[in-house]
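Hello Y.,

Per our agreement to keep a running log of every chain we model this quarter, I'm adding this entry. I've kept the format consistent with earlier entries: sequence first, then predicted structure.
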Amino acid sequence: MATHTVRTVRTIHTVHASPLGDLLLTGSVSPAGALTLTSLSLPGQGGAPAVRAEDRDDRPFAEAHRQLAAYFTGRRTRFDLTLSPAGSPFQRAVWQALEDVPHGTTTTYGELAARLGVPRAEIRSVGRALGANPLLLLRPCHRVIGADGSLRGYAGGVEHKQWLLTHEGALQPTLL
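Predicted structure for the entry above:
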């Protein structure tokens, strides 16, 4: 009788200290040790994945930590990590389109919808897809703003959106 070894993918997490607070990264590790990121959540974000302390493993996230540190010090403008967010085909198409919004710039919900061929009457579906983005910062939904220039909804909080856009040079720092 033949026996089969079942190799399972392990779900793990880590925390990355940042100027925004502790970022929660989750991912899956293959039996060969390859990491695929499934989420990056900001502090206070609703809908962040629940994690168990015993599933924390910082080692597979070394490259993600390196790239995030470089981003926050201004030495990186794009991420080169393996991503696999859970979402519908439409959501994944919206999230993928974010890759075309360059660092230091913004786009509007309407412009993003037009690029995706979404009818004007259905722009809200783009907003809902952005709100469900599980890879904040890595898939830069913070770069999408209202047609009037307003900083509308952001799952990580509008204050974090403002900080990120200021950090990237898309907004001027505000003086208090």
